[in-house]
Design brief:
Number of strands: 30
Largest sheet: 8 strands, mixed
Shape: globular
Oligomer: single chain
Helix content: 25-40%
Strand content: 15-25%
Structural class: alpha/beta
Bound molecules: beta-D-glucopyranose
CATH superfamily of the largest domain: Glycoside hydrolase, family 3, N-terminal domain
Distance between the termini: 54 Å
Number of helices: 18
CATH class of the largest domain: Alpha Beta
Amino acid sequence: MRRIHLLLALALSLAAVGATAHAGPSRPWLNSALSPDQRAQLAVGQMTQAEKLTLVLGYFASDWQGKKPPKGGRYGSAGYVPGIPRLGIPPQWQTDAGIGVATQGGATVKRERTSLPSGIATAATWNPQIAFQGGRMIGSEARDSGFNVMLAGGVDLARDPRNGRNFEYAGEDPLLAGTIVGSEIAGIQSNHIISTTKHYALNDLETGRKGHDARIDPAAARMSDLLAFQFAIERGDPGSVMCSYNRVNGNFACENDWLLNQVLKGDFGFRGYVMSDWGAVHSTVKAAMSGLDQQSGWPFDDKPYFGSLLKQAVASGKVPEARLDDMARRVLRSMFAHGLVDDPVPGSAAIDYAADEAVTQTDAEQGIVLLKNDGNLLPLTGAARRIVVIGGHADKGVLAGSGSSLVYPRGGNAVPGLEPTGWPGPVMYFPDSPVKELERLAPNATISFVDGADPAAAAAAARNADVAIVFATQWSSESIDVPMKLDGNQDALIEAVATANPRTGVVLETNAGVAMPWAPRVPAIVEAWYPGTDGGAAIANILTGRVNPSGHLPVTFYASEAQLPRPVRPGSNSEMDQFTLPYTEGAAVGYKWADRNNLQPLFPFGHGLSYTRYDYGQISAAAAPGGSVRVQFTLRNSGSRAGMAVGQVYASPANGGWQAPRRLVGFSKVELAPGAAQTVAVDVDPRLLANFDEAAHAWRIAPGAYIFSLGASSRDLRATTTVTVPALSLPANWRPGQEAAAPAPQSGERGR
Ligand code: BGC
């Protein structure tokens, strides 16, 4: 099917561009045998200044504040950058975002497309292949909708469970987040389109996102948020990086020489282009000279900084012409490298929704986390003849996160009219009802539904049932933060139901972790996140045991806000709020913070139960060349159901010296039949054993003994082994596959 689309697309686009698209002696940049760098260089050499300027200013492609979008854009989408037909360069048609093809507000006709579960749900799969397949699926829908740039790849770390965009990202750990997001980017780009990674960097709170100043020790940033971006970029090779709204250590991210020129383009070796977030530009000369290559979404900013103002700045010499060339060259390089010129997108093409729904359903199923299952309440068995489902609009659909990334579903909003109906809403329920899916899977049970508005009525219904399942929700969206709790009176509802019937399970659809004051009285808890287009079917498959749960938390579920690095969330929940946001926890994010401070979370990072039992053992580790360590371990399914086990490898220096007692340094998810075992090897990236030394501008591994532990979670370590590692220093621009160049540091040196 996909192949037919590609052929059709090729035929249509060749017809559209005509003979002019062919390479020839006069248009050598269209010769795909040349490298992207050569092609970009050749094309820029032919361009007028006006053409170069065309490539560095993007437009919002929807109505905005009474302004109409430019012709040529795909109406109702995030962005449009005109092409250069004279040179065979197509426009850039940009769409949000990381879970599917979104539609921007203002557009009356919505693109109805397939949505993956939220980004945090995909991270909870701990399965890079699933992330790749999801990326490939949404990228194909983007392509078949006429888009060649997808504004996906959100990898800001979850420093605070109240960040309203946690659902768009991939959790709190740089290795897990970078691996999952990098895989998704690679999947998107396998469609010959560009993906971004965003929002670079430290856009870890929505409150004051356009005004707050994230203050962090630079070395700590390298070992946390920036490392997540570095891993995502190395794995996914995104064509573009989107700089964020906030300031970092005093400078706005989109005019931050340290972030863009020194770290991203210098140390990370990023060869693509930096685009701004929509409304994140504040200057012309400073931004251009600090590394921004493309201003996005005009007129979101107050001025066309990279339009007429950039032209003036070049004329006056404040921005050298060579820098404008570099900006245009970077944009073109990514367009050549990722197939936008050689394999142009069609205006539109048929989408195989059935195939795409299978992809999102598998993603949701692997990301759902069984948090608690006392007395094996789940899976629901034939003995549960009377099942009452309560709340969460589970009779109609499943909740989605909102904001620019919202994908409008085929079939429309299952629960229209909930506030807010306008930005940052609408509140959206995808029309895949868990109740209807349960009825399909459990035809011999009587399944009733109570909406939960009245806790007493819900408790009465629960009393007469064999099992009660409460669906509980926390809505979230871009541009707001949310309290670390369920919406409205759902805590009281759950208490009332659990009191009436001890055989109560709770299914959560949340942004990230919430407080669960009722947890001790509820035997089964399932975290389903925002589970996407086929979320109802995925939840029903988990509840009935058709699918064995295999998701694990990509974030710490704290017991209360008192455990957070900042118990009181700063700012006033306005995105314009200006304040300093000191990330004093540095690189001790999430479980590292909890471990360092001996906190007992509600559910720890990496936690996730299953309906079978796994043995974790036979761990061994050996130092490998180049500072890596190879860790081997065996996972065995000692229960009676097939399932997927996740082996998590944590490292600790025996002598301390890290920001926290342990770091995740490797993981692997394997499918195991009952009784089966598999031995797995993971190669630990040496940067995960190092501290970043800002003065030496290098990663430094302290010599000594390191303990490697195999865990079922960060707090459930089942087997350990110790390896002695030599001292090693790797330059800041070191990349995997590169030999260690620098000499070892003096003995006893341990970084910070
Ligand atoms: C968001 C980005 C998004 C862009 C375009 C911004 O408000 O922060 O994530 O890609 O809008 O819609």
